[in-house]
Amino acid sequence: MNKRVVVTGTGVITPVGNDVGTYWKNLLEGVCGIDFITSIPTDDLPVKIAGEVKDFSPADYGIEPPFARKQDKFTVYAVAAAWQAVRQAGLVSGDEGNIDPFRFGVYVGSGIGGFTTQARETEKILNEGAKWVSPLFIPTMIANIAAGNIAIRNNACGPCLPVVTACATSTHAIGEAYRAIKHGYADAIIAGGTEAVIIPLGIAGFANAKALSRSEDPKYASLPFNRNRGGFVMAEGAAILVLEEYEHAVARGAEIIAEVCGYGNTCDAHHVTAPRPDGVTQAAAIRQALDEAGYTSDDVLYINAHGTGTALNDVSETAAFKLALGEDAYKAHISSTKGSTGHMLGAAGAAEAVAAVLALKNGVVPPTANLDETDPECDLDYTPNHAVEAPLTIAISDSLGFGGHNGCVAFRKYNG
Predict the structure, then answer these.
(1) Which of 32, 172, 261, 306 is catalytic?
(2) Per the residue annotation, which of 248, 343, 378, 405 is the catalytic one?
(3) Is 306 a catalytic residue?
(4) Are residues 247 and 268 in the same domain?
């Protein structure tokens, strides 16, 4: 028998807020978290803007100074977001708690992992020699270590599966966690993603691949579905959802935020960086999620789009929505919150899933910031610049990653 799966906790560290309340408020107001980079020198870099996390203090999330000093930022951000989500969910693992440790899992991935650590230790071996490489290099850099640390700190001894599918990472993490609970392998899973790659090597790599916006105005650089778009804006942060089996959540009196009800996963099998132009494989992932969720034309649908602001993504994604929904695509409420946050890479899908869940709960569609000139090829309702109230019944969040990875998760409004 398939289990029902619900969301009982959320947490975020983002360029527009380091808690869910601030994040949601700023999304609704179209606040842009992109600015000139301050964490590294940019004199020699072709791009000098990004969506950096601001005013972040690890101690605010129960993180001890020695831990914060020794870990890469991608792990610290993940632990902070998980702390928020688990605290909201009210889960305590162990004999004196409310969940069996062996039924409590962690599915938190990263597209790249400890990039700051890798760059720093590489510089050491090149300039100073092998003996100066930190003994903590490997367990600080590897992409699964954020999940491992979250499991340690929350006594989560159940399934632990860090996903790595580039910019689709955290959408797939949520989807796979949903399936694990649905099919009885866990009672609750901490799911999401994290990323911290705003370093010279990261900026240079993405910029030289012609992926990044070259705008010199940080507040008009991330332009999803805008005819003036010129690439995505790199961002950092983490986002976590606590997924829980419905009966388990009800039995302990947890507040249920939304119900997880569908998941799709396909691959373009087309190109290592470019999305498939006709949108066929992306549409298949969306349709899988919607079909599992029981979507009908009577539903009021919100789509949090991948919407990176690259020339190819926004057009192919629009085509995918039309293929997946037919005429219903024209009545769907759609937005890309990357206009506010920039592209958080492996954390993007989870941050956008949090936005989708909050849109359902509150009946408000967050806007696509900076959408002042719509691309004629992107002719759906992309909610330009201003939030819109709507009686939403279902929401999806889709993500596309380098390598052709497509993921989509679906949520339903919870009515008790």
Answers:
(1) 306
(2) 343
(3) yes
(4) no
Same domain, 188 and 99: yes
**Tens place of pLDDT for every residue, the chain, 416 residues?**
799 999 999 999 999 999 999 999 999 999 999 999 999 999 999 999 999 999 999 999 999 999 999 999 999 999 999 999 999 999 999 989 999 999 999 999 999 999 999 999 999 999 999 999 999 999 999 999 999 999 999 999 999 999 999 999 999 999 999 999 999 999 999 999 999 999 999 999 999 999 999 999 999 999 999 999 999 999 999 999 999 999 999 999 999 999 999 999 999 999 999 999 999 999 999 999 999 999 999 999 999 999 999 999 999 999 999 999 999 999 999 999 999 999 999 999 999 999 999 999 999 999 999 999 999 999 999 999 999 999 999 999 999 999 999 999 999 999 87
* Structural domain containing residue 227: 5-251
Q: Which of 25, 383, 77, 10 is nearest to 226 (CA)?
A: 383
**CA 284/CA 86 separation, integer angstroms:** 33
Tell me whether residue 257 is in a domain: no
Torsion of CA 387, 389, 394, 399, to 10 degrees: 0
Active-site entry in 160, 167, 378, 408? 167
pTM of the model as a whole: 0.97
Between CA 307 and CA 315 the distance in angstroms is 9
343 is catalytic: yes
Q: Is 153 helix (H, G, I), strand (E, B) or coil?
A: helix
